[in-house]
Amino acid sequence: MSDPYERSAEYLDIMIADAWRPLAPALADVLTGVKAKTGAVVDLGAGSGRGVRVICDALPRTPVLAVEPSVAMRAVLLARLHDDPELRRRVTVTAGDCASFDWPDGVRAVVALNMLGHLPPPQRRALWARAARHLAPGGALVVNVTPPFEPTTVERVRMAHATIGLSEYEGWASARPSGTDEITWHMEYRTLRQGSPLTQASVEYRWWVAPEEALATEAAEAGLSFRPAGDPDLGLRVLTRVGGNNPVY
């Protein structure tokens, strides 16, 4: 399978920096509220490692398993880990995804941010089921849900902009319906100098959508509760075993 991030990895970490400013403290609040006190934390779709750093800061001494299928994104992730002695000691990187990754038992928490849409419905249901089997008592799965929730057109919009040295970097996004429960995102990235483009890259990828009620029903079928956490605009959701020793948010 082709890697949709092969052409865009140069841009992605700086493009998501602004989004992580409110997301990081919200994720940290959720993680510190998890009642399970032992076991590793799994970061599914760890990307460039911004979430990994939040996990390590929020849960000192906890080992982290960072799972990332993209070779290009793992390169950025490993560079971030190698330059920080604490991260280098605690974080193990695995080349895989939530289906191929060999989950350990007794997981303290699973973080799966900005990746649910990459999963076709059967794989999404498999995620709920695997989390229910492998979470430690009091453990939690943390996801985020973001619009659109049904196939619809998203008009082209600039999603991020950053200046580094003499260069400006920007990312643009648009989407179109491409199935009964999916859209196709079209992403454009550009490097500019004094307003003139120097380099650019574009990529398309499929993104499966579902109403939140449908996600909650799927989770319940796997034995997981599905509840909001933090600022509603961030879309954070915490899943815990129904009837288990669950944290309270």
Describe this structure in words.
The protein has 249 residues and is an alpha/beta fold. The protein folds into two domains: 9-147 and 210-241, 3-Layer(aba) Sandwich (Rossmann fold), CATH 3.40.50.150; 154-208, Single Sheet (N-terminal domain of TfIIb). Helix content is 30%, strand content 35%. The protein is built from seven helices and eleven strands. The chain has helices at residues 9-15, 17-32, 50-58, 71-82, 85-90, 121-134, 212-221, and strands spanning 41-44, 64-67, 91-94, 107-112, 135-144, 154-164, 167-179, 182-193, 196-208, 224-228, 236-241. A seven-stranded mixed β-sheet has the order 3-2-1-4-5-11-10, with helices on both faces. Strands 6-7-8-9 form a four-stranded antiparallel β-sheet, with helices on one face. It comes from Streptomyces minutiscleroticus.
How do you describe this structure in short?
The protein is built from seven helices and eleven strands.
SSE layout and pairing:
Blueprint: H1 9-15, H2 17-32, E1 41-44, H3 50-58, E2 64-67, H4 71-82, H5 85-90, E3 91-94, E4 107-112, H6 121-134, E5 135-144, E6 154-164, E7 167-179, E8 182-193, E9 196-208, H7 212-221, E10 224-228, E11 236-241
Parallel strand pairs: 1-2, 1-4, 2-3, 4-5
Antiparallel strand pairs: 5-11, 6-7, 7-8, 8-9, 10-11
Quick tags:
Rossmann fold, N-terminal domain of TfIIb, 249 residues, 11 strands, alpha/beta, disordered C terminus, 7 helices, 7-stranded mixed beta sheet
